[in-house]
């Protein structure tokens, strides 16, 4: 049963049960806590100390970690979002196979919120790190981050977020974390609007060469379209708030089929039509097209599971031997 729990990525259950039936199971419980943080997409704590976890697994998790201070090193998901999106794809697949559809849709929603930053990553040279914004964003003639600018297509919330992102790297850690909790995803959407949907463009995107900006515009527009697809809207479909009205597998697949049709308006969005073997066929291909590079589902959760099985198997054998030797 313990091995089957590991194979099903039931890290929380395994971590709770293993100490009850196995001697010296602290190491197993520690690895389970690490795996559960990954499965729950608790990116704030991916870098938390896990003494029993092999260094290569911890290093891969830290690549998805969101820095908790303006100067924290390494920069993790602010250096590149590609490892985080690989993990997101693996989590989506695992949740699908477990039929944990509400958490799966939540993961899809997270993927939609930050997808514009994945599109901008080749241009920025990072994944939207507020400590490294290009000077061109606030160059003369730019309306980016100007609160109350009526000719800007950003909403009031986006204007507030973009204004703050230009100065948040000078704030204390508490302010930095509050910004990421509430406003960074709005900055992602605002950037996409700048390059792909602004009706009166300012100088905010002039630092990007015209040919590169044209390609970026298509990828960013596709990211905005994905955020408004029937699949992502399932996150908000419950009549009395999040957490009520979990969709069925059939409803998810139907929403994705309609989403693929909505996205198939340009060569980037057409990537969603690929039959790439993913539970939501074409999702990795779409994310790769928006990113401009191939983004595959990771094997991080699978490798944590395999490591746990490697710990459990000899512990079970030792327990059986001890029980066999017990006197009648």
What attributes does this structure have?
2 domains; globular; disordered C terminus; mainly alpha; 328 residues
Structural account:
The chain has 328 residues and is mainly α. The chain is built from 14 helices and no strands. The protein has helices at 2-7, 11-21, 26-39, 55-62, 82-98, 101-124, 156-165, 173-182, 184-196, 210-227, 230-233, 249-263, 283-291, 300-325. Residues 324-328 have low confidence and may be disordered.
Through-space gap between termini:
26 Å
Number-wise, the strands total 0
Largest pleated sheet? none
Give the percentage of residues in beta strands.
under 5%
Rg, Cα atoms, Å: 22 Å
Structural domains: how many: 2
Helix content: 55-70%
Mean pLDDT: 93
Order of SSEs: HHHHHHHHHHHHHH
Structural class: mainly alpha
Low-confidence stretches: 324-328
In summary, what is this structure?
The chain has 328 residues and is an all-alpha fold. It has helices at residues 2-7, 11-21, 26-39, 55-62, 82-98, 101-124, 156-165, 173-182, 184-196, 210-227, 230-233, 249-263, 283-291, 300-325. The longest helix is centred in the C-terminal third of the chain and has 26 residues, at 300-325.
């Amino acid at each position: 049963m313990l091995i089957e729990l590991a194979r099903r990525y039931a890290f929380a259950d395994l971590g709770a049960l293993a100490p009850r039936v196995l001697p010296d199971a602290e190491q197993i419980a520690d690895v389970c806590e690490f795996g559960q943080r990954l499965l729950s997409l608790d990116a704030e704590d991916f870098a938390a100390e896990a003494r029993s976890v092999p260094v290569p697994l911890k290093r891969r998790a830290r690549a998805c970690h969101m820095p908790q201070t303006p100067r924290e090193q390494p920069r993790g998901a602010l250096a590149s979002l590609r490892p985080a999106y690989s993990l997101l794809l693996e989590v989506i697949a695992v949740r699908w196979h477990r039929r944990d559809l509400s958490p799966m849709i939540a993961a899809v929603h997270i993927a939609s919120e930050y997808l514009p930053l994945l599109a901008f990553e080749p241009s920025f040279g990072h994944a939207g790190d507020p400590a490294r914004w290009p000077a061109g964003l606030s160059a003369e003639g730019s309306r980016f981050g100007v609160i109350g600018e009526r000719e800007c297509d950003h909403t009031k919330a986006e204007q507030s977020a973009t204004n703050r992102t230009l100065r948040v790297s000078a704030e204390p850690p508490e302010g930095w974390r509050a910004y990421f909790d509430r406003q960074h995803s709005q900055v992602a959407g605002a950037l996409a609007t700048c390059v792909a949907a602004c009706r009166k463009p300012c100088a905010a995107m002039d630092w990007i060469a015209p040919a590169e900006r044209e390609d970026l515009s298509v990828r960013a527009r596709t990211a905005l379209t994905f955020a408004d697809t029937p699949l992502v809207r399932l996150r908000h479909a419950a009549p009395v708030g999040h957490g009520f009205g979990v969709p069925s597998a059939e409803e998810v697949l139907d929403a994705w089929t309609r989403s693929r049709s909505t996205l198939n308006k340009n060569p980037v969005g057409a990537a969603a039509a690929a039959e790439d073997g993913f539970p939501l066929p074409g999702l990795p291909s779409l994310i790769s097209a928006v990113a401009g590079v191939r983004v595959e589902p990771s094997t991080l959760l699978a490798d944590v599971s395999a490591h746990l099985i490697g710990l459990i198997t000899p512990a079970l054998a030792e327990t059986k031997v001890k029980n066999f030797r017990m006197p009648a």
